[in-house]
Amino acid sequence: MALAKLLWQTHQDLAMACLQHPFVQGLGDGSLNPAKFSYYVGQDSFFLEAFARAYSVAAAKAPYWEIFQIFHHLADGVLEELRLHSNYAKGWGVDLRQVQPASTTRQYTDFLLNTAWTHDVATTAVAMAPCMRLYAFLGQSLAANSTPRHPYTDWVETYSSDQFEPLAQQLEGLIDDYATDSTLIRQTYRYAMTCELNFFTAVWQEAQPPP
Fold it and tell me: What is the pLDDT of residue 210?
């Protein structure tokens, strides 16, 4: 089995915990409190900016031109996500300039940036792949349950789209081509998956709906 697929299959416990999380389920059926989504938009925008920076660091450290191009292409995908979040922010009244990262958000971004600066590009790809694969999985799983259009339908359509899945596959391709299975690789992947679950939990718990 290819390493990227092995890592994903090994962490199905965390993937399913994310899918079944009340925040994600609320996105899927449209029942999520708008205040929680607004809070998520701000936190996720901060996260995505760090994600794009980590891609750029990895590109600068790439030993081959092909890898450099792949990381830049992936960074372009993140910029598209940020444009989407900017539109969300306008529609939901979120001033992204005023966003302060929660401790859980900062913990995740610090981990990604530290990995990008201190490890090789293969390990960086392993740290970043759980986010891409998980969001593709969540989008596709939620899209499979047909529901009438609701305020979060665009979110589901974005991550279940034919444009997002290839980005996840590209990053996993780097893992398969350049990473070697090891304790560090498995710990890195699991930590990133844990950060994803913690991120959803923090957004769910910390956002305070208006009275």
Answer: 43
pLDDT digits (tens, 9 = 90+) for 4-53: 999 999 999 999 999 999 999 999 999 999 999 989 999 999 999 999 99
Catalytic residue, chosen from 131, 165, 172, 195, is 131
Task: Set out the domains of the chain in order of their start, with CATH numbers.
Answer: 3-206 (1.20.910.10)
Question: Active site includes 131?
Answer: yes
Distance, CA of 190 to CA of 120 (rounded, Å) = 18
DSSP assignment of 134-189, as one string?
HHHHHHHHHHTS-----TTHHHHHHHTSTTHHHHHHHHHHHHHHH----HHHHHHH
Torsion of CA 37, 41, 43, 49, to 10 degrees: 160
Q: Do 26 and 36 contact (CB within 8 A), yes or no?
A: yes
| pTM score, whole prediction | 0.94
